[in-house]
């Protein structure tokens, strides 16, 4: 399974809405997660099951989609949201990450 | 709180071996599937290996199959990664991570802080 994220870089201002895309080479059902990574830090889980927010994640983050097309939306960008975002397919035997979208 | 702490990184020559360890605390270690994920400098995330609860089931990325071995010791709350025949392209920060839930199919919840492995002559 290959995950293609777009765009590679997204340039927005605080307060704007961000929409990040992840497209899979085959159907993932709902086994899709999104992570945020800031420089020098480990990734942090944001969304799992395509649309469920992880514990402690603000409600400005939302996920949608199923099958092969998924979206991460950030409704009103805060300064701390500027980071790299990865989508991930999780299976029992393997995990695949997208190449990442840099939000600047 | 749930915590993962990796160790064992360093500089190693191509073709040599290195072993990484990850010690877990704050949860029942044997209840969870454990992974290694790596990130080359300035690059994205690459999944490396997974081991299920009792250590009898494990899977690897094609890029490390036959060279890396994942293992776990539930009595010591530790998961390890033995890396043999190292190559320059194995240079990365190596993270251990735990499944968020107890199922085998689960996103990754707690992550360690990572340990840097540099393969260079």
Condensed summary:
Helices cover 0% and strands 49% of the residues of chain A.
Give a verbal description of the structure.
The complex is a heterodimer of chains A (104) and B (121). Chain A contains no helices and 11 strands. Chain A has strands spanning 3-6, 9-10, 18-24, 32-37, 44-48, 52-53, 61-66, 69-74, 84-90, 95-97, 101-103. The model of chain A has no long low-confidence stretch (mean pLDDT 96). Chain B is an all-beta fold and 121 residues long.
What is the count of DSSP helices of chain B, taking H or I runs of 4+ residues? Answer: 0
Helix content percent band of chain A: under 10%
Main β-sheet of chain A, in a few words? Answer: 7 strands, mixed
Number of helices of chain A: 0
In N-to-C order, the SSE pattern of chain A is EEEEEEEEEEE
Beta content of chain B: over 45%
How many DSSP-defined strands of chain A?
11
The biggest sheet of chain B, with number of strands, parallel, antiparallel or mixed sense and barrel status, is: 7 strands, mixed
For the structure shown, list the relevant keywords.
heterodimer, A: 104 residues, mainly beta, 0% helix, 49% strand, globular, B: mainly beta, four-stranded antiparallel β-sheet, 50% strand
Record the SSE blueprint.
The complex is a heterodimer of chains A (104) and B (121).
Chain A: E1 3-6, E2 9-10, E3 18-24, E4 32-37, E5 44-48, E6 52-53, E7 61-66, E8 69-74, E9 84-90, E10 95-97, E11 101-103
Parallel strand pairs in A: 2-11
Antiparallel strand pairs in A: 1-3, 3-8, 4-5, 4-9, 5-6, 7-8, 9-10, 9-11
Chain B: E1 3-7, E2 10-12, E3 18-25, E4 34-39, E5 45-51, E6 58-60, E7 68-73, E8 78-83, E9 92-99, E10 108-111, E11 115-119
Parallel strand pairs in B: 2-11
Antiparallel strand pairs in B: 1-3, 3-8, 4-5, 4-9, 5-6, 7-8, 9-10, 9-11
């Amino acid at each position: 399974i290959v995950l293609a994220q777009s765009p590679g870089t997204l340039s927005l201002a605080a307060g704007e809405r961000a929409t990040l895309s992840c497209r899979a080479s085959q159907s993932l059902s709902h086994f899709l997660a999104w992570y945020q990574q800031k420089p020098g830090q480990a990734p942090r889980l944001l969304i799992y099951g395509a649309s469920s927010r992880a514990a402690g994640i603000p409600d400005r983050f939302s996920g949608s989609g199923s099958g092969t097309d998924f979206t991460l939306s950030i409704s009103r960008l805060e300064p701390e949201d500027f980071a790299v975002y990865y989508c991930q397919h999780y299976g029992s035997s393997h995990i695949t990450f997208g190449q990442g979208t840099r939000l600047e | 709180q749930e915590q993962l702490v990796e160790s064992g990184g360093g500089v190693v020559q191509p073709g040599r071996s290195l072993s990484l360890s990850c010690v877990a605390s704050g949860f029942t270690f044997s209840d969870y599937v454990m992974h290694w994920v790596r990130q080359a400098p300035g690059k994205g995330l690459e999944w490396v290996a997974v081991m299920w609860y009792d250590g009898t089931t494990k899977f690897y990325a094609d890029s490390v199959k036959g060279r890396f071995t994942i293992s776990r010791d539930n009595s010591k709350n530790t998961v390890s990664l033995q890396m043999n025949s190292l190559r320059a392209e194995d240079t990365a920060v190596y993270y251990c991570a735990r499944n968020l839930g107890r199922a085998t199919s689960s996103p990754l919840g707690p992550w360690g802080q990572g340990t840097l492995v540099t393969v260079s002559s």
